[in-house]
Amino acid sequence: MHRWWFYLLLLTLVGCGRSPAEAGSLPTVQSLPPGEVQPVAPGFHPAPPLPQIVLNPEVPGLRRLVYLSNGSLEAAHGLLLVPRNQTQPAQLLGLAQQVVQRAYAARESLGMVDVSLYRAEDYAGFGGPLPLFTASVPKVRLAEFLRLRPETLALYDHLWLNPNEPTAPALKPSRLAEHRPTFEGSHNELLNQQRLQLQQRQRGALPGSGLYYHGPPNSNKVALTFDDAPHPMYAPLVLDALQRAGVRATFFVIGRNAEAYPYFVRDLARAGHELGNHTYHHVRLVGLPESVMRDELLRTNQLLQGLTGQPVRFFRPPGGRYDAQVLRVAKSVGLTTAFWTDDPGDFNNPGSRAIERRTLRFLRKGGIVLLHDNAQQTLPILVKLAEDARSRGLELTTLSAQAGR
To answer: Is 106 helix (H, G, I), strand (E, B) or coil?
Structure first.
C-alpha cells in the first residue's frame, strides 16, 4: 500500500476507538483524493427571512428594519442609506435617533436596537465600503441616546463615527464558509499535516507547532468557537445567550467588522470571551503575496489589541483554506492557526434541531466546535447545548482555557 494511502486510512479509521461513521465527522486536511467529512444537508438552504418592522410614515433612506429573538432578548437592526449631501455628523445622528426611537415605539418587546448608516452611492453590503455611522442602543439607554448632540458623541460608548472617507476595500472578501480545513500543497506537505493532525487527536496540540487541530484528548474541556464576528443585532443576542448559558467562547473576528462595531468587540472581551484573528477583509489567503498575508493578520491583531488591551493568540483562515506559507506567516506574527473537530454546518441553515443534533453527536473531550455568530438558527440552541455538554461531563470554554494557556 502506498504510504499516502496509509495515512489517509489512518485518519479515516483511527482515533479514540471511533467507528468509521464517527470518523466521518473529523476534519480532514485535504488534497486529492478527498477525505470524509461530517455530512451536511444537501445544497444551500437560504436563511428564513427576518421579520420586518414597518414604520409609517417611512424614514428617508431606511432600507430595512429587521428583528430577531434568542428566546430571552429581542433585538432589531436598521440599515439606512444616506445621500452624499446628508452625511454630516448632525444629520447622521438625527437619522439614527429617529429610527431607534420609532423602532421602540413600534415594537414594545424590543430590548435592543442597532443602526448602521452607509453612504447610498457606494453601499455594497458585505465587503463594501465601511459604514458612516453605527450605534447600539439598549432600551434602558434610549433616553441617554436621544439626548446626544454632535458635540457629545464621545460620551456614548456604543457608537462609532467613521473618521475616514469610505472607500472600496483593498481586497475582495471570500464568501467561502468554513466547511472543512483544506490544505493546498504538495503530497509531502499534505502528509506532514495529516501526521500532525493525527498526533494531536491522540495527544493534543504540540507546543511550538503553530497548529491547533485538537485539544487535549483526555480533557473535559470543549472549545466553543464562532467565526465572522461581530455582526449588528446578532452580537447582543449571542452575548446574552452565552451569559445565560454560563459559557465563554472564542470569537474569530473579521477586522473590518471590528472597526465598524468596536463596542461589540469590547463587550465580548468584557464578558470574558476570547478574540481570535479571522483576517481583516475575510480574504482567502492562499496565493496572496506574503506581505499581504502579513498585513491582513497584523492589522487585525493591532485593532483587536487596541480595543481590548488583550493579546490575540489564535488565527483561523477564512474558508479553512491554508498552505505552508499561511502557517508560516501566522506563526511569525505570534498566532497559532486553529481549526475544528465538530462542524454542524450552521451556515447552511439546516434548522435548529439539525444543528443541535449534529453538534451533540460529535461532541467529545478535547473537541473544537465551529459555529457562526450570525447564524440565526444557532441562537435557540446555545443554552441547551451548554446544558447537554455539562450532562456529559464536558465544559464548553475558550481555546486558551482548553489549551491551558
So the answer is: helix
Residue-level pLDDT at 392: 96
> Contact 59/98 with Cβ under 8 angstroms?
yes
Please state whether beta strands 133-138 and 112-119 pair in parallel, antiparallel, or not at all (unpaired).
antiparallel
From the list 84, 256, 253, 259, the residue with the least C-alpha distance to 170 is 256
What is the spatial distance between Cα 94 and Cα 83, in angstroms, rounded to a whole number? 14
In tens, the pLDDT along 216-251 reads 999 999 999 999 999 999 999 999 999 999 999 999
Strand ranges inside 180-329, DSSP E: 182-183, 211-212, 221-229, 250-253, 274-277, 314-315, 321-322
Beta carbons of 15 and 23 less than 8 angstroms apart: yes
- Name the residues annotated as catalytic: 227, 372
- What's the gap between Cα 363 and its chain centre? 20
CA atoms within 13 A on the CB side of 79: 14
**192, 185 contact by CB (below 8 A):** no
Helix, strand and coil content of the chain, in percent to the nearest 5, comes to 40, 20, 45
pLDDT in tens, 84-99: 999 999 999 999 999 9
CA 361 to chain centre: 22
> Above 90 in pLDDT, residue 154?
yes
Residue 390 is classified by DSSP as H
Choose among 187, 215, 180: nearest CA to 200: 215
Which alpha helices (H) appear in 204-253, and where do they start and end?
Answer: 234-245
Q: At what angle do helices 234-245 and 262-270 cross, to 10 degrees?
A: 0
Q: In 151-251, which residue ranges form alpha helices assigned H by DSSP?
A: 187-203, 234-245
Measured distance CA(1)–CA(356) in Å, rounded: 39
pTM comes to: 0.88
What pLDDT score was predicted for residue 365?
Answer: 95
Please state, in angstroms and rounded to a whole number, the distance separating the CA atoms of residues 161 and 320: 33
